[in-house]
Design goal:
About 0% of the residues are buried. The protein contains four helices and no strands. With about 90 residues, the chain is mostly helical.
C-alpha cells in the first residue's frame, strides 16, 4: 500500500492501521521518543544543523544506551523492551 492508495483501492481491514490500533506500548514509545528529543536533541538542533556532528553522535549513542537499558527511561515499563531498529 503506497501513500493514499488505501482511499481508492480495496484493502483488507487488517491492512489499515487506525488510531484504535494504537496500544499502550505504542503510546509509551511515542512518549519516550518525544521526551528523548525534547531533552537530548532539541536543545542542540541549531548546532547539529550547523555541522556539530559530535552532538549528533552523542544523541545517537544516548539513544543506543536506552536500547540496552530500557528500564533507565521513565516511559518504559519493566515488561516492555526496546527492539532493535530494522536496519
Amino acid at each position: 500500500m503506497n501513500g493514499g492508495s488505501f482511499l481508492i483501492e480495496d484493502q483488507k481491514p487488517g491492512d489499515v492501521f487506525t488510531p484504535e490500533d494504537i496500544t499502550e506500548d505504542h503510546k509509551a514509545i511515542a512518549r519516550a521518543a518525544r521526551e528523548f528529543f525534547d531533552n537530548e536533541v532539541a536543545p542542540h538542533v541549531e548546532e547539529i544543523q550547523h555541522g556539530n556532528h559530535d552532538l549528533a553522535v552523542k544523541a545517537l549513542l544516548t539513544a543506543a544506551a536506552l536500547d540496552s537499558n530500557p528500564s533507565s527511561h521513565p516511559n518504559v515499563t519493566a515488561e516492555w523492551r526496546w527492539t532493535s531498529p530494522p536496519f
